[in-house]
Specification:
The protein has 593 residues and is of the alpha/beta class. It contains 14 helices and 30 strands. Strand 16, helix 7 (265-280) and strand 17 form a beta-alpha-beta unit.
Amino acid sequence: MSRAPEIWAPTASTVELVLVGGSQAMVRRADGWWEASVDSTDHGAEPGAAIDYGFRIDGNGPFPDPRSRWQPQGVHEFSRTFNPAEYAWGDGAWEGRPLAGGIIYELHLGTFTPEGTLDAATGRLEHLKSIGVDFVELLPVNAFNGTHNWGYDGVLWYAVHEGYGGPAAYQRFVDACHQAGLGVIQDVVYNHLGPSGNYLPQYGPYLSEQAGNTWGSSLNLDGPDSDPVRRYIIDNALMWLGDYHVDGLRLDAVHALRDSRALHLLEELAAEVDVLSESLARPLTLIAESDLNDPRLITPRDANGYGLAAQWSDDFHHAVHVALTGEVSGYYADFEPLSALVKVLDQGFFHDGSYSSFRRRSHGRPLDSDTVPTWRLVVASQNHDQIGNRAIGDRLTAQLDAGQLGIAAALTLLGPYTPMLFMGEEWGATTPWQFFTSHPEPELGQATAEGRMREFAEMGWDPAVVPDPQDPETFTRSKLDWTELGQPEHERLLMLYRDLARLRRDHPDLTSPYFDDIDVEFDADARWLCLKRGDTEVLVNFSATPKALPAGDGAVLLAFATVPAAIIRRQPGSIVLAPHAFAVLAAPLVDPK
């Protein structure tokens, strides 16, 4: 590139472009942007070669470019130019795919493989295809300080973390996914920035002085000079979808976006993404993470909604988790009765205006089943939050037997909503997924570790058992152990996931988008449930003793229990299910006469 990036610094008196061989004063435009023309050959670079650069603001710095695509030396150092158009894409046959009917697989690049890189993750794509995955969802890859963390402490949103392979490796990964028939969803964080390496306030009013959230200052979305800040976010989203060929974005914690404008940032973003989708002639998906249970997010804009494609529904997770584990502390308390799971399966949200004992107030509002299809809710029995935010990062595998793990899989994959799997759950991975950080600053690292331990001590945990997030072993323990796949108990569960994905693919009832096609029967005392989706039935025995469930005469498509033998026994009008078991029945047999 022969031209350095422009920079928005509306309150600066002077801005210099700093290069390895010197610096150059930049010229201010009336709109608060500064510009300077630079020929890289003037600074010893070959024509078209990448150049390292930064910006000095009012004599301070140099600081990296807020829109930097490449930070090879870390978030405190010079940015490096990167031209995504130079990559020769091989995904010309990829036409994208809609979210409806799909299966998402959530993974963290640093712990998905031993190497923890994008190129290493590419080597596991065939495994994902074998379990019916349609979309690979990557936890945040934006540049952060340190070598490893979850990704939610990013500070340079346009750059790909160098430890994962940088922007070139990201292009190779997306390209390989598309050539394998897999879409890519990128997790992005627009509600806050990390605690180290955030130089945005040096440039201008990116942060709000009026509003904060759980993680610190919020972005300035509605105050003075907020138009360029909103543009900074929207342009970032369009970069992933356009320049990097990504198929969708998961928008982190949108309830933490402080925006009082008549046109909310999410609605504005959704409208621009829809325009890009039409231009690219492929589906583009926006998925919100929200704890508001507000259907406005996924209501079409012509019905006064924001027009996002989908949103996470934690109510599903909580209801399934409680039904299987019996945990009822904290926000799990309201989900103790089996009727909570029934309501979630039948209506989408549990808290739809009902009283939340955890919040000590009413929460949520009902979905309109006439305008919101079932697939707009993304659900999981495990995900990075619900595992990693536990004191010791333990998976369901640590508490449940094989039959219970199978029930969790069946409810997720055969239920009414868009299923999302968390890496390793498909074989019952026993490795934990813990909260890990690598802050280079000793004070920040100590504060993070002490805050984590204090949080769980207040909930009754012994601080000695809570992993130190700064301990490198906490990160190492969280890496998947792929050798488990060769063990019979893990192989059996993996085969179940493959069978469930096949059933989803082969039986249209199991991907029906209509709430009207759902019917649930249950017995709270006997601890069984029957989920009917059209002419297909999923019978579940949560109890530790055999139970008789009412059932038609359809063929048994699949059955699974802790003990493989004698899972089901037919009797007139019912099926007796073994403890901790489920069975899937097809439509009633039709007499050819």
